[in-house]
Every structure is written in structure tokens, then in C-alpha cells.
Amino acid sequence: MAAKKSSSEGVLSRVSSTISESPIVYRGKRAASDAGFVAKKLLKSTGKAAWIAGTTFLILVVPLIIEMDREAQLNELELQQASLLGTPAVGVPQKYGSNGVKFKQKQNERKQQQHQLV
């Protein structure tokens, strides 16, 4: 029985070594290694792109949103004051377009009103 056991271990080790030395297994290991390398590079570049997009958003878009909110609050305040004083409202506040045309129009109207008061 001992001889049979050693011969079966020999067969298993030969089959195992034959399979592990197979060109198919080598190519599979190589493909897995290459895929891991590509995935690592992709994650690094994606992280860099996300960082750039996030910081750009914070620097450019957030101040614009804050300024638009302040302008909307100022318009509401002006309308409330006008209604309390009994004067007709100059205009109903409108949402700003993506190009900020309404914002510029409101600024120009305010400047004209200030010059008329002086």
C-alpha cells in the first residue's frame, strides 16, 4: 500500500507540475498581471481626474452659486421693502440664465436708480 501511495503522489505532482508549467497557465498569469497593472494605472488617473474636477468646481462654480443666492435674497428684500413702503415693485425677480444676462440687467437697473436718486 505504501508503494501505491507514493506512486499516486508522483502522478499528482507530475500532473500538477505539468499544468503549472503549461503555456496556457503562463499566459493566464501574464494576462492577470497585465490587467492588474492597467487597473492600478486607471484608478490612479481616475483619482487625479476626480481631484481636478472637484477643485475646479469648488473654485469656479461654488462662488457663482453663492453670488446668485445673494442676488436672489437681495431681490426678495427689495420687494419686501417696496411692498412695506407702498411703492410699486420694480420687477418680479426672475431666475438667472446660465449666461448671467438677468444678473447684468438687474445691476444696470440698480445703477440707474441710484443715479436718479442723486
Uncertain stretches = 1-6
Helix fraction bin: over 70%
What general outline do the C-alpha atoms trace? rod-shaped
Order of helices and strands: HHH
**Global mean pLDDT:** 78
How many structural units, i.e. domains? Answer: 1
Could you tell me the strand content as a percent range? Answer: under 5%
The separation of the N and C termini measures: 115 Å
**What about the largest sheet?**
none
Number of helices: 3
Indicate the structural class. Answer: mainly alpha
Q: How much is the radius of gyration in Å? A: 36 Å
Total number of strands: 0
Task: Describe, in plain words, how this protein is organized in 3D.
With 118 residues, this protein is mainly alpha-helical. It has one domain (17-85, 102-117). Helix content is 84%, strand content 0%. The protein is rod-shaped.
Helices, strands, pairings?
Layout: H1 2-20, H2 23-85, H3 101-117
Membrane topology: Single-pass membrane protein
Transmembrane segments: 49-66
Protein name: Mitochondrial outer membrane translocase complex, subunit Tom22, plant
